[in-house]
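Weekly modeling sync, notes
Attendees: S.R. (lead), two postdocs, one rotation student

Agenda item 3: backlog of single-chain predictions. S.R. asked that every request posted to the team notebook include the full sequence so nobody has to chase files. The rotation student volunteered to paste the first one in as an example of the format we agreed on. Action items at the bottom.

Example entry:
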Amino acid sequence: MTKKILVSGSLAYDRIMDFDGRFKDHILPDKIHVLNVSFYVEKFRQSLGGTAGNIAYNLTLLHEKPVILSTYGSDFSEYKKWCKMHKMDISQARRIKNVLTASAYIITDQSDNQITGFFAGAMLHANGPAQKKLLGQNSLAIIPPGNLTDMKKYPVQYKKSKTPYIYDPGQQITVLTKKDLLSGLTGAKVFISNDYELTLVLKKIGLTLNQLLKRVELVVTTKGEKGSVILTKNRKYKIPPAKPKNTSDPTGAGDAYRAGFIKGLVAGYPLPKVGRLASVVSVYTVEKYGTQTHLFSWKELQRRYYQNFQERL
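Predicted structure, as returned to the notebook:
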């Protein structure tokens, strides 16, 4: 039976800019308390994005039909046409009148470090509970960064309805309380983060990695160009990175990885294969400027997977 995939999080317009230098060369550590810097950018693009949108888009390329649980504003017409074109189901998303859609302003330097300014807009409003018909053991949900109320309530709803879910607090770690984080990750099928976020979460909740693994089935940690790690209570799987053809823009690579990981889980692949698939999916967005500007077919993905791992998908 095909699993329903529920994707909460944000729908946003990304304004992506590239800085032809390194932030560290222009930030004086002893003057950090009076920081006043300006970065001249020569490359700019408005892209359709947000965690929900990016994950859902990659899932459609993987022949899945994700349902988006998010909010959007009065300026969403362009994005709405895109969703319809790519069969991204926004029937469960909520339109907020007289408010603009969330927007991210992202500057990336030559070391792939990023400085982001985020306007929440419609994301300040909760989407609300998922419909009961979408829930249950034949569904899989992901809770990435988005509206805080939704991020607090979806774990409760999913656990009550026995809906397996992936918990991915990401950029909202700093504003979620210790209680919120413990509630969200306890009982999750997967806790996913990058290595910096993992350290931040463990410090905030006061647990060791081994203690975390008693609350969640899988801990997945992405490490950029070093690949990723999948941990269970008994095993550790080191996942090598896939090789991109170029590194045009890293924005959205994490969301693409998550989509690949979800696809591997619903396909029933063994965990190492799930991680390798996620690695391959993630490089496509790195190769294109923007987060929903890449394309691939399943046949092309199979070829790319074999080129990287000498294993058939």
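Discussion: group reviewed the output briefly. The domain at 4-27+39-309 is CATH 3.40.1190.20 (UDP-N-acetylmuramoyl-L-alanine:D-glutamate ligase).
Action items: rotation student to repeat for the remaining queue; S.R. to check formatting next week.
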